[in-house]
C-alpha cells in the first residue's frame, strides 16, 4: 500500500494552491436528491435537506452549506407548532458546515440560536452538542479559556439527571474534545484518559468514523510522550478505517501526522511523501488548516534536505494561506459574535432569575403578603430603571450616528463644491474659445477673409481637445476615487508613448507656434498601466502648452533612474514663465482635491485636477512626482515609473 501511495504522490503537482474540481456526491445522497425533486410536504423537505447537509458537512462542506441554508430558511417559514423540532437540527448541521470552512463567526451565531431552541424544547442532547461545538470553535482559535468554559457547561449537564438523555455520539465528541484540550494544556495523562474513554465508547457503538478519530488522537499523544512504536500502528489503523469510510479530510490529517512521525524517526523521504499526500487530500476537501500544516511540514523537510529554494517556496505558500485564515476582518467578526453571544447569555440569565423570583413570590405571597408586595414593587422599579438606561443608551447611540452622518454629508458637500469649482473654471476656457470662434466666423465672412476662415478648424480642434482633456481628467478622477480603476501593468516602450503624446498635441502646438520634442533610449520600456501612463503624459504636456507663450518649446525626456535600477525617470520641460517656490510647494503638498481660487491667475487652478490625477496615478505605480520651477526659468516635472526588465 505504501508503494502505491508513493507512486500516486509523485503525480501530484507542486504548484500554487488551486481549487480542484468538486468531487462527486456520495452514492447515498442521490436517492435523497431525487426525492427532493418530487412533490413533498415542507416538513419532509426540511428533513431531507438537513440529512444531505449533515452527510456532506465533513467532506464537501461548501456544497453542504447550500442544502443547510435551504433547510434553515424553509424551517423558519413553517408554523410555530412544527418549526422548532425541524429548525434545531438544521441549525446544528449548518453550523458544522461553517465551522469546517473556518467561518467561525457564522458558526457561533447559528449555535447561539440553536442553543436557545434546545433550552425551549428541553432537548439536552442538542444543548450539550451546542456547548461542545462552541468549545471546539474557540479551541481551534487557541482560546482555551473560553473553550474550557463551554466544555464545563456540557459536563454539568451530563452529570445532572437530564444527562441520561444525551446520546453516546454526543458523549464521545465531548470526551474527545476534552482530550484535545488537555493535550493543548500539556496535561498528557488526562488527555490519554479522555481519549481512551472516547475510543472505548466508539467501539461499543460501532462508530468507525469516531474510532478512526480517537485512534489518531491517541497516536498524537503517544508521539508527544515519545512512544513511537505504537504511534505508527495506531495511525495506519486509523488511516485504513478512514479510507474505507471515504473520509478525505480525516485522511489528510492522518497523512500529516504520518509525516510528523517519519520526521521524528529520521525517514525524510517517507515524511515528504506523506506531507505531499496530506496537501493533496486537503486541497481536494478544501481543508485549509490541514493544508497550512502540510505547507509548514514541506518547508521544514525541504530545508532539512538542503533544498532551500523549495523550502522558500513552501514557506511563501504557508505565509499566504496563514494570512488568509487569520485576516483582521474574520477576527473582528468573531469578536462581535462573542460579544453578541455573551449579551444573549446575560439576557437569558436575567429572564431566568426574574421567572424564579416571580415563582418564589407567588408561593410565599399568602404567608408574607407585605414582603411579596415590596419585592414586586422593587422588581418593577429595577425593570423600569434598566429600561430607562437602555433607552438613554439607544438615544445616545442614535445621536452619535446622526452626528457622524452629518459630518460625512458636510465632507461630501465640500468635496462636491471643490470639484464643481475646478470643472467650472477649466471649462470656461474651451467654452470661451468656442464662443470666440462663432464671432470670428461672422467677422471673417463679413470681411471675406479666406485665410482667417482656414485657421478656424485648427482653433475649433484646439478648443475641442482642451474640453475633451478636461472631461477625461474629471472621469478618471471620479473613477479613481470610487476604487473601480484598476492598475494593470504591461511592458510599454517609452519611445512609442512619447510619439503618441507628441502626435496628439502636435496640431495644438503648431497653432500657437509652439514646439514639442522627445528623446528616449532605444529599447527602454516601462512596466505600467497603459491608460494611466497616457493620462500622466497628456496632463504634463497639456499643462505645459497651456501656460507657455507662443513660440515656446516642450521637451520630453526619458532615462534610467541612477539612484534606483528598478525605475525610469520621465521628464517634461517647458520654456514657460515658471512658478514661485510657494506655488510649487502648494501643488506638491496640497490636499487630495485643491481648493479653488478663482481669479485672473489661471495657474492657481489650471494645474489642480490634472496634477492631482498625475500624482495619484504615479503613486499607484509606486513612483514619485517632482516639480522644479523658478519664475522666468520654465518648469520641469519629473515622474518615476517601474522599468520592465
TrEMBL record:
Gene Ontology molecular function: any one: phosphorelay sensor kinase activity
Signal peptide (UniProt feature, chain positions): 1-18
One protein family per Pfam: HATPase_c
PROSITE patterns: HIS_KIN
Class of the enzyme per the UniProt entry, highest EC level: transferase
Transmembrane segments: 366-385
Keyword Membrane: yes
Gene3D superfamilies given in the database record: 1.10.287.130, Histidine kinase-like ATPase, C-terminal domain, Tetratricopeptide repeat domain
EC number(s) stated in the UniProt entry for this protein: 2.7.13.3
Domain Histidine kinase as annotated: residue spans: 422-645
Catalytic activity: ATP + protein L-histidine = ADP + protein N-phospho-L-histidine
InterPro entries: HATPase_C_sf (IPR036890), HATPase_dom (IPR003594), His_kinase_dom (IPR005467), HisK_dim/P_dom (IPR003661), HisK_dim/P_sf (IPR036097), Sensor_HK_Regulatory (IPR050736), Sig_transdc_His_kin-like_C (IPR004358), TPR-like_helical_dom_sf (IPR011990)
Keywords attached to this entry: Kinase, Membrane, Phosphoprotein, Signal, Transferase, Transmembrane, Transmembrane helix, Two-component regulatory system
The protein's name in its UniProt record: histidine kinase
Amino acid at each position: 500500500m505504501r508503494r502505491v501511495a508513493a507512486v500516486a504522490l509523485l503525480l501530484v503537482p507542486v504548484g500554487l494552491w488551486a481549487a480542484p474540481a468538486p468531487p462527486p456526491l456520495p452514492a447515498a445522497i442521490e436517492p435523497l436528491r431525487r426525492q427532493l425533486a418530487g412533490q413533498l410536504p415542507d416538513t419532509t423537505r426540511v428533513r431531507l435537506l438537513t440529512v444531505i447537509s449533515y452527510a456532506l458537512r465533513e467532506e464537501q462542506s461548501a456544497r453542504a452549506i447550500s442544502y443547510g441554508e435551504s433547510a434553515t430558511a424553509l424551517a423558519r417559514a413553517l408554523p410555530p407548532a412544527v418549526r422548532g423540532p425541524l429548525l434545531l437540527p438544521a441549525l446544528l448541521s449548518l453550523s458544522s458546515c461553517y465551522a469546517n470552512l473556518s467561518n467561525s463567526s457564522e458558526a457561533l451565531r447559528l449555535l447561539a440560536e440553536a442553543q436557545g431552541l434546545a433550552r425551549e424544547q428541553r432537548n439536552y442532547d442538542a444543548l450539550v452538542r451546542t456547548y461542545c461545538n462552541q468549545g471546539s470553535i474557540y479551541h481551534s482559535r487557541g482560546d482555551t479559556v473560553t473553550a474550557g468554559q463551554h466544555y464545563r457547561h456540557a459536563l454539568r449537564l451530563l452529570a445532572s439527571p437530564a444527562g441520561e438523555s444525551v446520546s453516546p455520539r454526543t458523549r464521545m465528541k465531548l470526551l474527545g474534545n476534552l482530550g484535545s484540550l488537555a493535550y493543548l494544556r500539556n496535561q498528557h495523562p488526562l488527555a490519554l484518559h479522555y481519549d481512551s474513554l472516547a475510543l472505548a465508547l466508539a467501539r461499543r457503538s460501532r462508530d468507525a468514523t469516531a474510532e478512526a478519530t480517537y485512534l489518531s488522537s491517541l497516536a498524537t499523544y503517544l508521539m508527544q510522550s515519545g512512544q513511537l512504536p505504537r504511534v505508527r500502528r495506531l495511525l495506519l489503523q486509523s488511516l485504513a478505517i478512514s479510507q474505507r469510510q471515504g473520509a478525505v479530510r480525516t485522511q489528510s490529517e492522518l497523512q500529516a501526522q504520518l509525516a510528523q512521525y517519519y520526521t521524528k524517526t529520521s525517514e525524510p523521504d517517507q515524511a515528504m511523501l506523506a506531507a505531499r499526500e496530506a496537501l493533496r487530500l486537503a486541497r481536494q476537501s478544501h481543508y485549509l488548516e490541514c493544508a497550512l500544516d502540510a505547507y509548514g511540514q514541506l518547508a521544514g523537510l525541504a530545508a532539512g534536505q538542503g533544498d532551500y529554494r523549495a523550502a522558500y517556496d513552501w514557506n511563501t505558500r504557508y505565509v499566504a494561506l496563514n494570512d488568509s485564515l487569520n485576516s483582521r476582518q474574520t477576527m473582528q467578526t468573531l469578536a462581535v459574535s462573542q460579544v453578541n453571544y455573551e449579551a444573549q447569555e446575560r439576557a437569558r440569565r436575567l429572564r431566568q432569575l426574574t421567572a424564579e423570583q416571580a415563582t418564589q413570590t407567588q408561593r410565599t405571597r399568602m404567608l408574607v403578603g407585605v414582603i411579596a408586595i415590596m419585592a414586586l414593587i422593587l422588581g418593577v422599579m429595577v425593570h423600569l430603571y434598566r429600561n430607562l438606561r437602555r433607552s438613554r443608551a439607544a438615544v445616545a447611540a442614535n445621536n452619535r450616528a446622526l452626528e457622524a452622518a452629518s459630518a460625512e454629508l458636510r465632507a461630501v458637500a465640500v468635496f462636491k463644491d471643490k470639484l464643481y469649482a475646478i470643472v467650472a473654471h477649466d471649462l470656461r476656457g474651451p467654452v470661451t474659445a468656442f464662443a470666440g470662434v462663432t464671432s470670428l466666423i461672422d467677422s471673417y465672412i463679413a470681411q471675406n477673409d479666406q485665410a482667417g476662415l482656414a485657421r478656424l478648424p485648427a482653433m475649433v480642434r484646439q478648443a475641442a481637445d482642451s474640453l475633451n482633456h478636461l472631461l477625461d481628467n474629471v472621469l478618471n478622477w471620479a473613477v479613481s476615487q470610487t476604487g473601480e480603476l484598476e492598475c494593470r501593468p504591461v511592458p510599454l516602450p517609452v519611445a512609442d508613448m512619447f510619439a503618441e503624446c507628441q502626435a496628439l498635441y502636435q496640431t495644438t502646438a503648431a497653432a500657437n507656434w509652439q514646439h514639442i520634442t522627445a528623446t528616449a533610449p532605444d529599447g527602454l520600456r516601462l512596466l505600467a498601466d497603459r491608460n494611466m501612463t497616457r493620462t500622466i503624459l497628456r496632463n504634463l504636456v497639456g499643462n505645459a502648452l497651456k501656460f507657455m507663450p507662443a513660440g515656446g518649446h516642450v521637451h520630453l525626456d526619458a532615462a534610467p533612474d541612477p539612484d534606483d535600477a528598478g525605475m525610469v525617470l520621465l521628464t517634461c520641460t517647458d520654456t514657460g514663465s515658471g512658478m514661485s517656490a510657494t506655488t510649487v510647494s502648494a501643488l506638491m503638498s496640497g490636499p487630495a482635491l485643491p481648493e479653488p481660487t478663482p481669479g485672473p491667475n489661471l495657474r492657481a487652478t489650471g494645474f489642480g485636477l490634472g496634477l492631482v490625477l498625475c500624482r495619484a496615478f504615479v503613486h499607484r505605480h509606486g513612483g514619485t512626482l517632482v516639480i522644479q520651477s523658478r519664475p522666468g526659468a520654465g518648469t520641469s516635472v519629473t515622474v518615476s515609473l517601474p522599468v520592465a526588465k
